[in-house]
Amino acid sequence: MVKVIDMGKFLFEQTKKERQARKAQTKIEVKEIRLRPKTNVHHRDFKVDDARRWLEHGMKVRVTIKFRGREITYPEIALEDLKEIAEALKDVSKIEASPSMEGKSMTLVLAPDKSSGKKPGATSVEKSSEQPAKPETATKAEKAEPAIKPEKATVKTEALSKPEKAAKAVKAD
After folding, report:
1. Fewer beta carbons below 10 Å: N end or C end of the chain?
2. Where are the beta strands (DSSP E) in the chain?
3. DSSP string, 106-156
4. 147-167 burial, b for 16+ CB within 10 Å, e for fewer?
């Protein structure tokens, strides 16, 4: 049996399917942080904050430490820096490629953690919990329940203190 088709219509539908397939693809972007073994802790923390933001948006992060001159004779310094960065970002990432030496640089690749997708949702829950607390002047009955409001405040401070605890732990080491 032979089927006669309209070639123009066939090609149009084929290109339409290809366009839909391209739209459905997810393109994972890899961001890079470049450091040196002598980079101070304060500057590194700024870079770690950028990496945290990128990981929360679903991007991968490559951390590269470049060596110059005689610095290459002390790879343990760079390895320690990479371990501290991975430790600071362990709540939003997982190590995809462990630290490896490639020429005059040491590289670590971090991928976003599956559970980190819930983190931005948690901030929206905190924002929604702030909104009911605002209309305190509505009735006197609502003011009579002070036990609920401090619990909400402690939840917020715990959520804010986790990154601070991680940063203090890194600085303490």
Report:
1. N
2. 30-35, 60-66, 93-102, 105-112
3. EEEEEEE-GGGGHHHHHHHHHHHHHHHHS-TTS-HHHHT-TTHHHHHHHHH
4. eeeeeeeeeeeeeeeeeeebe
DSSP state for residue 90 in the 8-state scheme: T
Answer for the pair 67, 78: CB distance below 8 angstroms, yes or no.
yes
Q: What are the beta bridge partners of residue 63?
A: 33, 108
Contact between 96 and 128 (Cβ < 8 Å): no
Convert the pLDDT of each residue in 86-137 to its tens digit. 999 889 989 988 898 989 999 999 999 876 554 444 444 444 444 444 444 4
Q: pLDDT higher for 1 or 147? A: 1
